[in-house]
Amino acid sequence: MEERRFTNRLAASAVLMLALFAVCVGALALLCTNRTYIQAARGQSESLLLLDEGRGNIFDCRFAALTNAQDQVYALLPPGSQSYRTWFKEVQPGQRTDFYSAVQRAQPFLIPVSQQAQQSNTVPDHTFRNPQRYFSAPIAPHLIGYLNGDGQGVAGIEYAYDSLLQGGSTREDVYCVTDASGNLIETDTPHILYTQGTGSGIMLTLDATLQRICEGIASQMDRGCILVMECATGRVRASVSVPSFDPYNVAASIRLDDTSLINRTVSAYNAGSVFKPILAAAALEAGVDPRAQYECTGAIDVNGHVYHCFNNEAHGMLDLETALEQSCNCYFVQLGLQLGAERIHEAAALAGMGRATAIGGNLRTASGNLPDARQLEDLGQLASISFGQGALTATPLQVAAALNIFANGGRYVEPSFVEGVVNEYTCQVTQSLYAPIQRQAFSPETAETVRNMLIAVVEDGIGQAAQPAGGGAGGKTGTAQTGRTEESGREIVNAWFAGFWPASRPQYTIAVMLDEGTRSSTDAARIFSDVASALYHYQLGVSGAAAGEGGAPIPEQEGTAS
């Protein structure tokens, strides 16, 4: 009896277990066919990995991209020790800390793949090609600027238009599905999800081709800058500052304290004799006879202070043109005393001295220092400014704009770096930001007279090293004293050459400055010659292309200043 009861209980238990099992199987089947549950389970193992945050781009004047133009390959790796052992040696030293942290997480991660790994065909199964923000050989980094670790602009155009550029381009995220260990589920192939941005970008006035040409020429400098601007419009076509820096490793420049973060084209320096053409123009406007003779003995006394020409050289009898050709300090000191403080200050202000220039947004250049008329009542200050010394300082941009007056019929045009806001999807300018200050600084007759004098400086005077390969040029040397010397006793100077090319119908104004070294204005003139010669050959190439000899012509820039 007891045995039968036990058997019945055992059978009942078995039936109950089978029933419970059937219920569980049914419930599991229901879960597997319920799409709500499927999506919820899948969501726990999905990952979106940021590949590109979609920052708006910066373009040159012909819509050539200056950012996000050079591709970088990224590899998608699973976490864990296997990735660490296999790929650690392929990771760049500066990225190894991030890599070590990533392999310890519970989801896949992206790392840049080195060129060496790509060439050796050791790349992982899943790779994605995406533009990096800056070229490996950065273009115009001082003007373009750089980002901080959070992707925000902290210098240059990146800073000036940070809010506009954020979200301007297409955001890219890598979508992947993983198991509980973070390994990829191969049935769901990783792919990129695209989110379109606003399209907002910035077009600069730079010409990327001319910029690269000038960057190559500037490699012969230790410290200095080259600036090229269009005569008629003031558009800056090239802006180079040396030494350069790595926008991906700004900390290295800060650590070295090598001044590489200084944008020398918009920083103020002692001007020296590149100021003399402004004084010459002021004299002509005041009715001074340019043929009047002055005898230079190599020194001139002003209230007991003696001013000298370079190397105490006595230039003999001079008129205004030969004084400019030979850069005679004594002539210009006596000319400045003759003109007086008011006229000199007015002429310098009309030429753009002592006033900051807008670069873009709230970003501005240094203003330099122009002593006011009251300060110039001091004869020592007046004598010093007359040959570009004393308290007068100017940026290379200001010097270029001032010399450009004589290539532009006496008209001052404020230099411009930014053309406008663009839509990168439609390749159209949506808002013009080109609105330079313009004024008639000197009469066309005065400008033509000084322009011919500056051509004589290159053809017959101390600026002959500036002669280009073709087209001729005009310009002025400058050697500005800094009051300091090297241990060897050699004087440290700012060496200048600024002028225009070609001579007869100028198209470009060029300023070259060698910063606080022992090189001379002749060295600066040679660099000017290299730039002007490059412009000559560049224009020949454009002309050949227009004639069908070298491909499509480069279009003329529209919207010139009036």
If you had to describe this structure to a student in words, what would you say it looks like?
The strands form 10 sheets. The chain has a 5-stranded antiparallel β-sheet. A 4-stranded mixed β-sheet has the order 2-10-22-23, with no helix packed on it. Strands 1-8-9 form a 3-stranded antiparallel β-sheet, with no helix packed on it. The chain is of the alpha+beta class. The radius of gyration is 34 Å and the shape is elongated. Strand 18 and strand 19 form a beta hairpin. Helix 13 crosses helix 15. The termini are far apart. The protein has a domain of 326 residues: Beta-lactamase (3-Layer(aba) Sandwich), CATH 3.40.710.10. Helices cover 34% and strands 24% of the residues.
Q: Briefly, what is this?
A:
The chain has 562 residues and is α+β, with helices and mostly antiparallel strands. The protein has a domain at 208-421 and 435-546: DD-peptidase/beta-lactamase superfamily (Beta-lactamase, 3-Layer(aba) Sandwich), CATH 3.40.710. β22 and β23 (428-432) form a beta hairpin.
